[in-house]
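subagent[fold] <- orchestrator: predict structure for attached chain, return tokens only, no commentary.
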Amino acid sequence: MNVIKFLDNSDLTTAMTIPTDIQQLHAEMRQWRRHLHQFPETAFEETETARFIADKLSDFGLDVHQGLGRTGIVATLSAGSGAGKIALRADMDALFIQEQNNFDHKSRHEGKMHACGHDGHSAMLLGAASYLANHRNFDGTVYFIFQPAEEGRAGARQMILDGLFKKFPADRVFGMHNFPDIPLGHFAVRPGPMMASFDCFEIVLTGQATHAAMPHLGNDAIVAAAQLISALQTIVSRTVNPADPAVVSITQVHAGQTWNALPESVVLRGTFRCFSNTVQQTIADKISQLSHAVCQGFDVTAEIKFNPENPGYPVTFNTEEETRMALNAAIAVVGDDSINRQPTPCMGSEDFAFMLQEKPGCYLWLGNGSSDNSCLLHNPHYDFNDAILPIGAAYWVRLVETVLPQ
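subagent[fold] -> orchestrator:
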């Protein structure tokens, strides 16, 4: 094991323990990452991405299974005679965002880009697979999960429904995501909730259409919708315990097509997020209650649908023992001073939560450096920081060696 120093965007140096062979893989991982960045594919359409990854894994000598979750990949690597089994997961889908960067590896697919770093996540897990296949300094079995459709389409859930953990019975599962504005190469992890639940809702208010000059002859769904929007904002402030973080947001309002008529219906769409299954159910129940009560007062009706297009996401919840394992592995790579043990949980959501409902595990963040120049997640100027590729790969390797020691 050698020590290598990286310089992050705020001129802070961090000493890190990176295996020499992973350091030597850095340039190759960068090539893989930038290739994936140039050819982004969105949910359940990651066919070329999957082919690229599967070919690499086969070249490393791993047993590769394809097709779970339509385009998902699981590769298996065993060493020694141990019965322990660990699963490592990377997401590989892109977003429907038009890239606005001008570097050579920018997206070649119109309207699609890797704006969340899944290209980097895949490259880091490939790097770890390559190293572990060559060294096998562990005793047991490792499953490398390359998952499709994380961005709102619940690819993790689909892989599970297709038999992920029946075919590959891991004892525990681990995930990792890059995070801008965490210093380069620093880790953040905690037991308990890391990412919020995610649910969408659609409310269709239906009244009696009429001429705008004669509103008394109809039932105005727009006025009812305006009152309902205000009422929904009281759910968090007046129903949810102030100690429980939660948010309810109306994100779409659709009504009417002309200037001089009150429309028959209004469509409201929105989302809510929290860190507790109990709060999640409370919010859903209150949305239904308020919608019907407000609409009754205006003599209009309400039809409510939750998650009408895609399943909601549960809370991403880390278990105590697996968080300790992840923490020890991260400390071994970057040192204790580069660990945040009490990060503020994020109101964003993550479908890795479905895997954590099935198996104990841990999801942590790896610092991507400064977000200067709009380098934020889901931003058209975002790009994964290639400097953290060997750090992430080294973390995966150390985690396997920690959980499955020889």
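orchestrator: received. Logging for downstream: The longest strand covers residues 246-255. The chain has a mean pLDDT of 95.
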